[in-house]
Each structure stands twice: as C-alpha cells, then as structure tokens.
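fold-stage: in
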Amino acid sequence: MHTSPHWRRWLSAALRAALPSQCALCGMAAAELVCAPCHADFVAPARLRCLCCANPLADHVEAPAADARAAEPDAVTAVRWRPRCPRCVARAPAFDATVAAVDYAPPLDQLVLRLKFAAELATAPWCARVLADAVRAHPDLPRPDMLCPVPLSAARLIERGFNQALEIARPLARALDLPLEARLLVRRIDTRAQSSVAPRERESNIRNAFVLAPHDAALVRGRHIGLVDDVMTSGHTLGELAALLKRHGAARVTNYVFARTPPA
C-alpha cells in the first residue's frame, strides 16, 4: 500500500504511542531510544575538544590575542584560534577538523556495539540526531559541501549486511540539509579491523586501503568534504581518507563521528 510521507510520519507516531519503548541505557520507559535523564547524564554535558582530532582538552585553554587572530584570513579567523591538542600541533593530520558528539565510553559504547554487531539499525538515526546537535553547537565551523560515509570492504559489507557509517550519514545529511555521496569512496583492501591491530601498526594497516570512485575526481576538486563514521579511535582511517581526498584536490576535510575514543 502506498502512503504519503505525511501519513508515514503519523503512523510512526501512532505506533510509538501505542508501543512505549524502553531506554536503551537504563531500561526505563522512554519515548526515544535514550530517556531524558540518561541523555542529560551521558550526552548533554559538552566537552572542550581539540579542533582537529576531537580529543578532550582541559576545561580552560587560552586563545591567542585578538591581534593574532586578526592576522588570519577572514574566512577562517573564527576557526583558527580554537584550541588544538599538543599532538595535532606537533603533527597536523590530513583532515582539518573533527566534530564528535560523545566519548566512546560506557554506557554509550554499547549503543555502537549493538548497532554494528547486533544490527540494531534503529540506533543509527538517534546517533545522527545527537551528532547533528553537536554540529549545530559549533556554528563557527564551516559546513561541508557534501557528506561521505567511511566505506566498508565488499566482504565486510556482505558479512554485516549494512554499513553503520552510512546508516548514520543518511539521517545526518537530512538533518543538516547536505548532499550525501554514499559511493564517493571505495575500500579496495579488506584490512584487519583497526580495533584488532596494535596501535603502532594501525597507520600501516590502513595505508592505501581506499580509492576514489572512478570519474568522481571532479566532484572532490576544490570542495569541502565531510567524512562520517560511528567511532574515531586512533584517527588513522579518517586520516588516510582525508589524505586521499586532498591528493584529488579537496580544499577541506571535516570528520563527523558519533563517538570519540578518549586517549589512554
């Protein structure tokens, strides 16, 4: 039976009212995936993060003097002075910025695990909403021209049946009113999962694993690309993708991740 978008929204709301859900974190009755008290406890507290990699920073970081900020080009003045962690200052990554909604830590890490390994796809739109809120909380950061999910290999996609980054990217693109280029990037090498690789080997594990889809170089040249993923751990995967995009002429790359693994 064909239903209009209006009727689908009405039907969805009616079903939610008729079938109350439980909070995925505490088990109490909730209208959303996560109840309001858990959202306030685990999601709402914003953290000061590094502009580049989104690792947590100290609560207070001095900004450069106004005359130093004034020396920057107008288009980037609002962004340049935002704090960076010592690691990104010492060795700037290929990407230009990262927006992370939450830390990858209990209990929110369980939502990611259930999305990826239990195929609880209803988790993805909620992650996208939280991430969209984090993006809106930084109006000084320029929005990308398009969003692109971190791709899975063909073998991993067949095994899992879906790409969790794409499941988050779709509703995120709608929330931010941005185009989604789901096939812009291709993972040509089925690498070992980064979580299973020793930290010192992660950069080499992911090297040359990705290519740009044929005939899409013109789409990238001079554009600001937003990369979407569920979790950012070491940053090597996103760094490899950003470097690839920059080699093909991308002007800027920003990462949008639901969760950021805090440094050990």
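fold-stage: in (second)
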Amino acid sequence: MTGPGVNRRALIGSALALAACERRADAQTSPANLPTLRSVAPFPVGTCLQAVQLDDPAFAALVAAQVSQLTPEWEMKMEYIVQDDGSLRFEGPDKIAAFARSAGIRLFGHTLVWYAQSPPAFERLDVSRIAFDAAYRNYILAVAGRYRGQVSGWDVVNEAVAEDGEGWRDSLWSRKLGALNHMVLAFQHAREADPDAVLFLNDYNLENIPKKRATFLKLAEALLKAGAPLGGLGTQTHVAADLAPGELSRTISDLASLGLPVHLSEMDVSITRSEGLIKDRTRLAAGQARVYAEAAEAFSSLPPSQRFAFTHWGLRDGDSWLKRENAADTPLLFDDQGRPKAAAAAWIGGLR
C-alpha cells in the first residue's frame, strides 16, 4: 500500500544513513520526496494534540496532511472536564472533534477512568456507595455519550497495572467500587453510552517490563471473563532509542495473542531517556530510527482485523511532553519546524 515510486528498502537505508552522518540529530531531514504517513500506512495512523495547537495554521496543516486519527492529549481526561463544583466542561474536546470532522479525520477518546486522577467533586461523594456508583456511571455516560458516533474508540481504563507488574493499582475508583468491579463497570457504562466504539484497556512500559505485560494480559482475560465488553488492547509505547532489538516485536505479538485489536496508542522514542552505554547522539538517532522501523514492521505484520491504529504521541519535537521534560530531547518523527526526520523515513520504510 505504498504510494507511487516509494521504495521502502531505500527509505530505510536513507534514514539510517542520515542518522549516522556527522550532523546533529535535530538538524536531520529525510528524503525530499518522502510521502505522508497517512498515504502509505495500511492502517489508521494518528497523533495527539491539544485544542490550543489548532490555532497554529502550520500545525493544523501538518496534522491534516499526515494523520487519519486524532487523540486529545489531555482535554478528554477528568482533570480538564470535571470542575471543582462537579460541573463538566467540553470546550477543548469539542474544538478538537470539530476539527477532526472538518478534516475528515477520525477521533479517538482518551481517557474515561485513570487511577492518577480523582477530582475533588468525586472525593466529596462520601454518603454511600450507591451515590458514588451513580455519579461514576453518569460521568461516563455524559462524556462517552457526548461523542457517540464521533469516536472510533475509547481508552476506557488507563494504566491499571502496578508499575512493577505486581497486581493492579490502588485508586479512588478501586476503593469505592472494587478492584476489578470498577473496571468492569467502566466498560459496561461506556458500551451503554456508545454501542459502536471499540473499548480499550491501555497501559505503558509493557515493552520494558515483561512482568507488567503478563499482568496486563491477565487483567484483560479477567475483564473478559467478568463480562466486560473489552474490545482492544492499547500499549502506549513510550520507549527510548536504546530499546533492545526485538522487545517491541515481542510485545506486539504477546498483545495480539488474545485476538483483540491492538492500538499503539502513544508512541515516542526518547533520545535523552536512553540509559545504556550509547551516549553519542548520532548513534542514538540511528537507534531511534531502528526502533521506529521495528514498530512499524511488527504492527503492520498483524492481521488487518487487529491493526486498530498506530498513534504517535505528537508529530513535531517541539510539541512533545518529553521536550518539556528535557529540552534536549528529540523524540518524534518531525523536527520543531515540522520537517520529516530520519525517524519518519525509517517508520515508513518499516511498513509491510
């Protein structure tokens, strides 16, 4: 499904040559005739964004040209939607949804329930379990129902597995509604709100911590056994440029073993988070290109029915959360000016 004249083997070779050259990694560009991501991917390819970024015409044009799916970076999370008095605001996600419709890009919802967020309005609900249960259901119905028919899917439960893979995380939701039950309820309420959306369990560090990946898969099986309408598995794929070869492929293969659609939901490849012996930025840039190529190849090797989407957690380096964490990082496919990097050519070259 490549565009006319696109030679993936040549693209990979060009990308690695660029990454190995003596220039700084953030000055690299890929071949001048590199096609857009959406034009060559045999599956939906996405990015995240914030509503304010759409005020930048250059950013909006880059997004419209490159991707076929959008994920709100934070404006569909409780921290944005739920106000201290319990009221709900939707200006941000509504703006993103409107842009997606106008650009012919599908929308993905992120996220309904996350252990890390417990709005004060929910914490004050201490009168009874029934009252909390009703508020929990009403929130999911209000948010997922508002975008019914507009989203392709939802991250219903986000980051439920403990960091070390030892069981599940404690949260306000688990304490009030039960460790497994609060997740089952979330999936059931989301299905009630939007019968057609694909409902995901999403987590991170599944590539780096095999024990966490195993616990994640066992949780998915427990949800299915309990009757939750779990429809897919999401792996965030925040990784570093020195990730060992094969780790991404093993992760994607393991997730696919349940037969559910898979979503690479938040991919970026950090340069500065690399902790191995490689410190040279030129070699790290080559490693970054290799990781992106492996991810593209492994994901595109899945059966078509399991390739839900491949979402990059940003397009331009300057917009990345990792750039805010460390200004020296360059984790994405495009540089600060929106020019494709060697990593972009490698990702396209890895597609099958």
